[in-house]
Specification:
single chain; about 260 residues; alpha+beta; Ribosomal Protein S8, Chain: A, domain 1; Alpha-Beta Plaits; 3 domains; four-stranded antiparallel β-sheet; globular
């Protein structure tokens, strides 16, 4: 599916969800959206003036999240209390002799024929992983994983989304030097490319600022902001360490690892 066709398809699905919510007075949700799709959907929601919605990925700063739309007669807090009816967690506990990385869990799930939008982030820990999934497919996914050779000796359970394990995030710290706090300066240094190529990456919709698709190359980046570049990683702008003699800025950065 071409990029524009996919964009239109996502918007049409969201439009249908909005209409269903209004006519049936029920909480509705989409499949999991990646950051690019989330950015396009967010622009559409703002253009429609919709306020009774939120994004939920099961954990803080999730890369993938579902859009939840709720009737105007209830509050956001009331809608959030229903998230366990939408999301669940597949918990895999590996035997002591095994240790898998993220890609091995992902490839295992994809072998089962599931579309990527049916499950969210995969949170890997020392003993296994938590996979955030739509409740509607959790039982199917559990049974499929049990039958895979790589997981036959593992314990696999379905647990409530509230029980998700928050694994401490690891970072690699480093510094970059920029002329200003413009987004394209950050992208150029983080992706190790020219300013021209950095601008192209932003235009190609490969750059996200705080999980929202970046559109302006001159956007000012603030301390604490998260920059994600497809194919390059996800980074946090921690602080300004100092200025150089020629008025350039030395910035402390953290990369998610």
């Amino acid at each position: 599916m071409l990029k524009n066709d996919r964009k239109q398809y996502e918007i049409e699905k969201v439009s249908d969800k909005i209409e269903f919510c209004k006519t049936r007075n029920k909480i509705v949700n989409t499949d999991f959206l990646d950051m690019a799709a989330k950015g396009e959907v967010l622009k559409f929601l703002k253009s429609e003036g919709l306020k009774n919605y939120f994004f939920e990925g099961g954990k803080e700063n999730a890369d993938r999240s579902v859009l939840v739309i709720y009737p105007e007669k209830i509050t956001k807090e009331m809608a959030r209390n229903n998230i366990d009816k939408i999301l669940e967690v597949i918990r895999i506990k590996l035997p002591k002799e095994l240790k898998y990385e993220h890609r091995e869990y992902l490839s295992g799930i994809m072998k089962l024929g599931l579309k990527r939008e049916k499950f969210g982030d995969i949170i890997v820990n020392d003993r296994g992983a938590d996979i955030i999934v739509l409740k509607e497919i959790s039982e199917y996914l559990k049974q499929g994983l049990i039958e895979l050779t790589r997981f036959r000796k593992s314990e696999i359970d379905i647990v409530n989304i509230s029980e998700i394990k928050n694994v401490e995030t690891s970072f690699e710290e480093f510094t970059i030097i920029v002329a200003s706090l413009r987004l394209d300066n950050f992208v150029s240094e983080l992706a190790r490319c020219s300013r021209t190529r950095a601008e192209e990456l932003i235009v190609e919709q490969r750059v996200f600022l705080n999980s929202v698709l970046a559109e302006k190359t001159a956007k000012k980046v603030e301390a604490g902001d998260i920059i994600a570049i497809r194919g390059k990683g996800k980074f946090i702008f921690d602080s300004i360490e100092r200025e150089t003699r020629n008025d350039r800025l030395v910035l402390k950065m953290k990369k998610y690892i």
